[in-house]
Amino acid sequence: MEYSLTKATVVLNSTHILHQPIAIKGKRIAAVGKVEGIPIDLQNECIVYPALINIHDHLRGDYLPRVGPPEGTFYLNWSEWDKDLKTSRVFQERANISLMDSYLLGAYKNLFSGVCTVNDHFPHEFNEPFLDKLPIRVIREYALAHECSSFDLKWGDGIVTEHRRALKRGHPFITHLEEGFDEESQQGIEILLETGSLDEHAVLIHCIGFSDEDIRRVRKAGAHVVWCPASNMFMFNVTCKIRKILRAGVNVSIGTDSTHTGSINLLEELRYARSLYRTMYGEDLPARTLFEMVTQNPAKALRREDSIGTLEIGKWADILVVKQIEEDPFETLLKMNLEDIELLVLAGIPILGSDRCIALFQKKEKDYTSIALKGCKRTVIGDPMALLQRVREKVGYPKVLDYMPLQG
Ligand SMILES: [Fe+2]
Predict the structure, then answer these.
(1) Are 46 and 58 members of one domain?
(2) How far does the centroid of ligand 1 lie from the alpha carbon of residue 179, in Å?
(3) Is 346 helix (H, G, I), strand (E, B) or coil?
């Protein structure tokens, strides 16, 4: 399919913003400044962004409500949460839903918030059966460890082997790190250094226990940090030294973690991050910086800069179109809600859209359904309403999932 988005503000990346058409042909961006194929007139009311990237999620865990420490207390490390989760009522309830449907819930959580690409932090053998059946892109190209401590969940083939594999294949090596305060949890960087695994392939999630020296070593190594502020504050009432990490020049991305601890979606996580930063430091974290943390920064950390994260001719046409709220496009992103999404495109294929873009949803080869999303009519790939009904049947009551506000 060939089409163009016209009469809109186009955010190519955090420093280049145009008011020109953008043309899509097949899976890729074909031209900027030219109209080709079907024109979609956005009537000077919309902003076109690169689709968002959620660098840290656990799709199977995108169920609600959250599971956390007893009121007024916080955890020492993630393992206490893991025990609480596995003995919780919500965990029992979740077990009624098939793994495939759990994965679909996680995928739609992301899709409805403008995300086209996700990293699902689970071993390949666990998520592989589901990835082809999801409405968004969940990356397969990664090596991993669950965490770096003697009590971690032993995912993958061990830090040394997984990291070597990442180097050989040009993939990221992704791990939770220093998610807690006991002595061992604070040794994450030492373990990575001892195993020769701290380099530009390393993508380090949480990093709550980092010392100033750790930050310096991460910067020097060219490793990447993933900030999950809502999850950290919910579990530990503290997060990483984000201002020092940013000032050191480390490449930082924002991830949601699962909804069992994090925000309900990436848009809420962005707002939470900004508000927490203001509380912690008494200053603003610019919307432009936050935009980078869910587009070009995670593309770099995932070693996908050549295909996603910005709008460029030849890259994947992963596109998010939002109704303009503020004059500044980055402030619009920080204010937008699910119903403000006019169009979401994954590698050229429209996967969510309003009637303004309905001409793109006529093709017969994809299965689309019509939904009411917070009272607004949308066309979406797949059948999330049937998914929600299946979940309700399995759990035996009309379950509400805040990231999927569908009526019907
Ligand atoms: Fe996580």
Answers:
(1) no
(2) 9
(3) strand
177 and 241 within one domain: yes
Which residue is it, tokens 């999801």? 134
Residue-wise pLDDT for 214-265, tens only, equals 999 999 999 999 999 999 999 999 999 999 999 999 999 999 999 999 999 9
Q: How confident is the model at residue 394 (pLDDT cuts 50, 70, 90)?
A: very high
Give me the count of residues in the chain. 408
In 278-404, the DSSP E strands lie at: 319-323, 341-346, 349-353, 368-373, 376-381
Residues with CB under 5 A from ligand 1 (ion): 257
How many A from CA of 231 to the centre of ligand 1? 8
Q: How far is the CA of 222 from the centre of ligand 1 (A)?
A: 21
Structure tokens at 114: 């403008």
User: 31 and 70 in contact (C-beta within 8 Å)?
Assistant: no
CA of residue 147 to ligand 1 center, whole Å: 9
**Locus of tokens 């991993």:** 144
Domain CATH for 155:
3.20.20.140
**CA–CA dist 217, 223 (Å, integer):** 9
Are 79 and 133 part of one and the same domain?
yes
